[in-house]
Amino acid sequence: MNAAPLARARAVADAVLYEGYLLYPYRANARKNMSRWQFGVLGPPSAATDGFGEEPSLSAGFLLDPGTYPVLTWTVRFLQLQHRQVVDSDGRPRAELSTGARSWLSWDEAVPQELVVGPVAAESLVRPVKVPGGVDTEEIEDAAGQVVGQLVRTRQALTGEFELAAERDGRFLRLTAEVRNTGPPATGPRDAIARSLIGAHILGQLTGGQFVSSLDPPAEAGPAVEHCDRHRCFPVLAGPPGDHSLVLVSPIILYDHPEIAEQSEGDLFDATEIDEILTLRVMTMTDEEKAQARATDPRAAEIVDRCDAASPEAMRQLHGVLREPGSDPPRPIPEVPDGFDWWDPVADSAVRPDSDAVPVAGVLVRRGSRVRLHPSRRADAQDLFVDGAAARVVSVHQDVDGESHVGVVLDDDPAAELHEWFGRYLYFAPDELEPIDNGSEK
C-alpha cells in the first residue's frame, strides 16, 4: 500500500486519539482539565450501569466490495491512563513540588497503545487486547543536582477484545468491527478511568477490494448499508478522495476522506477549534500561566513553545485560505449595489434577509417558500437525517465571499416555531434545495 494515504489516515486518527486530552489554557488547575473527558472511552464492564464510568464497547458495521482475494490489516488504537504522582524527598505525595523556577505537578498523563491484527483474510475473528500495568520512577533534581523528590508513574493493566464478524450481503461483504473492555469491574470513578481504553478507534487497511462509503454509498449498496449497525462510533473512508483502501472507525463525527489542514503545524488537542484562535490565546497567557502549562504535561509544554516561536509567516498562514467562489453562484435579489463594499452602510441597507430572494432551479425562493432539502456538502452529520425533508424558508443571506445561504425550518419539526422565534435556523446553499411550491409537489 502507498505510504502517503496511510500517513494521512494516521494523522487524522491521532487527532481522534488526543481530541480533548488537554484543553486550553493547558493547565492542570483549569476547571476543564480537572474534569477531563474524551471520546471513545471504553470503561470496565458494569462501570456505566454503576454510574461511574463509560460503556465497555464500541462497534460499527460497514461494507466491503471484495475483489478476488481481499486482505485486511486492522489497527486498534487507544490511550492508557498513566497517573504521575509527585513525591517529595521524605516520600510524601505532593500535588506540586517546586524548586527555583521549576515546578512538577501530579497529573494524569496517557500512553498511546496499538494492537495490529493482520494481514488476515476477510473473515470472522477474535483477538485479545492485553496491555500490562507498570510503575516507573524518575528522580527530580534541583539546579545544583540534588535529588529533591520523585515522579512516580503508575499504569493499570488493561484487557479487552477485538472482534470482527463477516457476513455476505448480496455481492458485498458486511463487516462488523468491535472493541470491548473485558477487565474486572471497577470500584469507583478513578479506578474506572484508570482501567479504561481512552480515545479508542480502529483503522482498517485493505488490498484486493475496496471499502464502501457508509455516508454516500452507490445505489446498489444502499440496502446493504441499511443493514449495518453502529454503536458509539461511525466508519468513514480515511484515505484521500478516490481512495477506498482505508477505513477509520471513529467515535468522533467525521466525513469521508478527512484530512488535517495543511496550515496546522501541530496538535492543539481540540480539532474542532480554530488553530489561529488557540495560538493567539496561548500567546496572551502570562509567563506564570505558561510555566504552569509546561509543568502540567510535556505535550502542553510543546504547544506553548511552538506558539511562542510562531513566525509572522506561520501566523499569516493560519489566518485563512482564500478560495474562489463558483463561476456564477445564485445571488440574492436585491444585490449589494455596484461600487459599494460589503461593509458600507449602503450595502447593509440593501440586504434584507427577511424579504430577499435567491433563484433556485428557475424559481425565486424567499421567506415562506417551501423547499425539499438535498444536502450535498456533508458539512454536518445532521445532513444525513434531513436529506429529503420538506422545509420552509425563513431567510436568505449572502456572506462576504458572495456565497448565498438559505435559512430554513423543517416542516415536521415540532419545535419549528420555537427555532424561528429564537432565529436558530438550518442553513443550506441554493443548489442543495428543490423548490416544491411551483406546482411540482404539495
Give me a quick take on this structure:
By secondary structure, the protein is of the alpha+beta class. It folds into 2 domains: 3-81 and 106-133 and 155-308, no CATH class; 345-435, SH3 type barrels.
What's the SSE blueprint?
Elements: H1 3-18, H2 31-34, E1 57-88, E2 93-94, E3 96-99, E4 102-105, E5 107-121, E6 125-131, E7 134-141, E8 147-155, E9 158-169, E10 172-181, H3 189-194, E11 198-212, H4 222-226, E12 230-231, E13 234-237, E14 246-250, H5 275-283, H6 287-296, H7 298-308, H8 312-318, H9 345-350, E15 357-360, E16 363-366, E17 370-373, H10 382-386, E18 390-398, E19 404-410, H11 416-422, E20 426-428, E21 433-435
Antiparallel strand pairs: 1-2, 1-5, 1-8, 1-10, 1-11, 1-12, 3-4, 6-9, 7-8, 9-10, 11-14, 13-14, 15-16, 17-18, 17-21, 18-19, 19-20
Helix pairs in contact: 5-7, 6-7
For this entry, give a set of tags.
442 residues, SH3 type barrels, twelve-stranded antiparallel β-sheet, five-stranded antiparallel β-sheet, globular
Q: Could you explain how this protein is built, in words?
A:
The protein has 442 residues and is of the alpha+beta class. The chain folds into 2 domains: 3-81 and 106-133 and 155-308, no CATH class; 345-435, SH3 type barrels (Roll), CATH 2.30.30. Helices cover 19% and strands 37% of the residues. The protein contains 11 helices and 21 strands. The strands form 4 sheets. Strands 1, 2, 5, 6, 7, 8, 9, 10, 11, 12, 13 and 14 form a 12-stranded antiparallel β-sheet that branches. The protein has a 5-stranded antiparallel β-sheet with strand order 20-19-18-17-21, with helices on one face. Helix 6 runs antiparallel to helix 7 (298-308). The model has no long low-confidence stretch (mean pLDDT 89).
